[in-house]
Design a protein that fits this description.
This protein is an alpha+beta fold. The chain has a domain at about 45-80. It has one helix and three strands. It has one helix spanning about 1-20; strands at about 45-50, 55, 70-75. The protein has a three-stranded antiparallel sheet with strand order 2-1-3, with no helix packed on it.
């Protein structure tokens, strides 16, 4: 009888620990984040020339060296599709 009571008590304690509301969630909270602009739809911070990557601007314009349009680039410097 004592073994059964001990087993039940341990099971209940284990289950109570699983329902702890103060434990961090596996899914991150998006509280405080704006859903209006996601990284995929946000305007790129930088545009660069495909032929002269050293030429960049914060807006789409023309390369002063070759006249090509500057294309949006991501944080890694690669073009954004």
């Amino acid at each position: 009888m004592n073994v059964r009571l001990l087993g039940t008590t341990l099971t209940l304690l284990a289950l109570a620990g699983c329902n702890n509301k103060t434990a961090p969630s596996a899914t991150p909270s998006h509280e405080g984040h704006s859903s209006a602009t996601s990284p995929a739809t946000a305007a790129p911070a930088r545009h660069a020339c495909p032929m002269h990557p050293e030429v960049s601007d914060t807006k789409a314009s023309d390369c002063p060296k070759c006249g090509m349009k500057l294309v949006p680039v991501g944080p890694d410097g690669g073009p954004i599709q």
